[in-house]
Amino acid sequence: MANPSMSKHIQVESHMSLSGSNADNRILVKPSEQGAAIANLYNFVASKTGGSAISAPNVNEKAKSALMKLADALVATKGKSLIVCGTNNTAEQSLVFGINQLLGNIGTTVNFTNGSYQRQGNEADLLQLTKDMSAGSVDAVLFWNANPCYDFPMAKEFAEGLAKVKLKVSLNAILDETTAQCTHAAPEHHNLESWGDVEPKRGMYSLIQPTITPIFNTRQGGQSLLVWSDSANFNKSAEQPFYEYLKSTWQSTIMPKTSSTNFQEFWDKSLHDGILEVNSTAVNAPSYKLNPADLVNNITKPSSSPLEISFIKNLGVGAVNMLIIHGYKKWLIQ
């Protein structure tokens, strides 16, 4: 065997997940014990790496024993491990960062040069938009692959605020709840009819290619934006305007990051390979002074209740996923 060594995956969770079902070891904690589990793991690692202990809440004995063994394994592989979390609690996120610091993972497995550009949504900004619309201080709003009148927790308040906006434009591919509230609808092509590109993480590019010609009277979303902005770099008279714009952009901004000199060869290879990775300028780890003791008061505390419930989001839920997986038929997700 060329590489007999394999990585080991240990999952700490409250419910069964796809990752947990494939983990080498799975440590069960109650939903209210997740913060305590992070704090206890921090202490166990700190005790073996010269760090200072914090006042961690208790976690169940079985999980505590498993977390101690996990700490031993992590310290034995300093600089080669990675701790991640799925919590929205910023104090718990900071403690996880602190564990990675203790293990010497910052700058090795925690890489700031090729950061992920996924999940960039900001719920606080959306909440502020809801308040601004309700106050009548928003004149225009544009939606693209977003249906907050359905899947935003404050959908009712959002829709009421949206009613006060004069210009409301939707680029959504279907007549969903938000589009129905808009003054203008400019539906874009389906994904299978579209050209486009994505950069899921810094330095990694991928091209979106259509597999069928457009069926309905729709238009590429990016093309609509270019037409409305009257972009000087956009040739509206071209047979496939957005396709030509995409190629031109790759020639002027992406190819110079590579050693290629012939654009047609570069373009054909990029289409063929599906993914293009280029070297990114190194980004140093930001200065981050962590005071773990100050974070303990803000982590989730274990509950004394004998009954706890954990709500999880189905992978098929969400505007884009619902369109692709369910054809936006609501009864299919119930």
Automatic annotation (TrEMBL):
<protein>
    <recommendedName>
        <fullName>Molybdopterin oxidoreductase domain-containing protein</fullName>
    </recommendedName>
</protein>
